[in-house]
Amino acid sequence: MSGANGTDDPPTGQPSNSSLDYKDYELEQDASKIVIPFIYALVCCVGLTGNAMVIYVILKYAKMKTATNIYILNLAIADELFMLSVPFLATSAALQHWPFGSLMCRLVLSVDGINMFTSIFCLTVLSIDRYIAVVHPIKAARYRRPTVAKIINICVWVLSLVVILPIIIFADTVPAQDGGVDCNFLWPESSWSEAFVVYTFLLGFLLPVVAICLCYCLIVVRMRAVSLKAGWLQRRKSEKKITRMVLLVVAVFVVCWMPFYVVQLVSIFHRPPNPVVTQLFVILSYANSGANPILYGFVSDNFRRSFQRIVCFRWLENGLDGEQVDYCAVALKRQTTCSPQDFPKECLASEMVYRNGTCTSRATTL
Asked: Which residues cross the membrane (predicted)?
């Protein structure tokens, strides 16, 4: 966190002619107490709503329960769980100290850490799933089943828990320089802090991203090799769309997380950046948890139609007039037109889809 609060003491020991700088510092601190919690709240609302819709859609509609979507469900659950801890981080950022005690400090940082690793591990599994589907389509039938996907998801959670054991063990409240309390890590040696940043960078970013890039390089080679075969483009069109979806989510993950890890590494080998800038990069990494459902809605026809069904059914249950019911038909124009009575039965078609990937307070913050 540069704690979970990311506070910094004001400049001290400055000559009297630095009063203007001190006032600028105070204005910056006051602004951060308002702007940072507001951004946290916005990310939390978008993330909770979007991931809840993803979870509901996959659990609700039978045809959404494909192997790829089971992996997406796992990622959405991890993101939803993390979003429940964001209000604690926002409060800590506003108060600039940790008011929730030692147990909640350890719990929030542990949830934060497991979201970090579960997200990237899920994206890695999704990329391997795409590789098998495109490069080994015959073998895919054996491995790309919902039952297998559920077992792999359990393994992802177990692996993430093992990886974050240092967080569970060493996270605790620590006295702050201003007399308050921060939520941070109590390392046995100061060198452990730098080692932990490198550890999380390697396991939580670099190695998984290298594996993901390798999968997509092999996919591109395969697609080029068979693109001229008669009928292949038509047969594999669905797989290509899903692969693009997964690739987009991976790209957004890298964009959201790269600045965070750069800041962490710079803090080790150089000097820490401005605390406000650091906190904004932390929030950007959090925003990845809310971005995935938006990507599904824009890129995936299946998810978009499923999200529209949720809204349409809500209108129907509230007994609104026919104009809104007609809107449902327009929203589902690619599907069978249904009367309000038949709608729940006939308009549930949905052929799956894609893939999702997703302390100041990221757990690795120094």
From this structure: 34-59, 71-95, 107-128, 148-171, 196-221, 242-260, 280-299
Q: How far is CA 40 from CA 6, 43, 358, in A?
A: 14, 5, 17
Residue 41 has what pLDDT? 86
Q: Distance between CA 164 and CA 112 in Å, rounded? A: 10
Q: How far apart are the first and last CA of the chain?
A: 6
Percent of the chain at pLDDT > 70 equals 72
The pLDDT-based confidence of 363 (bands split at 50, 70, 90) is low
Tens-digit pLDDT profile for residues 172-226: 998 887 778 889 899 988 889 899 999 999 999 999 999 999 998 888 887 777 6
Task: Give the angle subtended at the CA of 160 by the CAs of 207 and 218, to the nearest 5°.
Answer: 35
pLDDT over threshold 70, residue 261: yes
User: Quick one: which H or E segment has residue 109?
Assistant: helix 101-135
- In DSSP terms, 184 is beta-bridged to 172
Q: How far apart are alpha carbons 200 and 357 in whole angstroms? A: 19
Cα distance between residue 287 and residue 86, in whole Å: 11
Cβ–Cβ < 8 Å for 34, 110: no
CA proximity to 2, closest of 90, 107, 93, 101:
93
Domain extents in the chain:
31-299, 319-361
Nearest to 354 by CA among 195, 237, 209, 239: 239
Find all residues with CB under 8 Å of 32, minimum gap 6, and list them: 93, 276, 279
Instruction: Encode pLDDT of 8-44 as tens digits.
Output: 444 444 444 444 444 445 555 555 667 778 888 888 8
Whole-Å CA distances, 131 to 20, 125, 138, 149, 243? 58, 10, 12, 15, 9
CA distance 25 to 30: 9
User: Residue 187: how many CB atoms within 10 A of its CB?
Assistant: 14
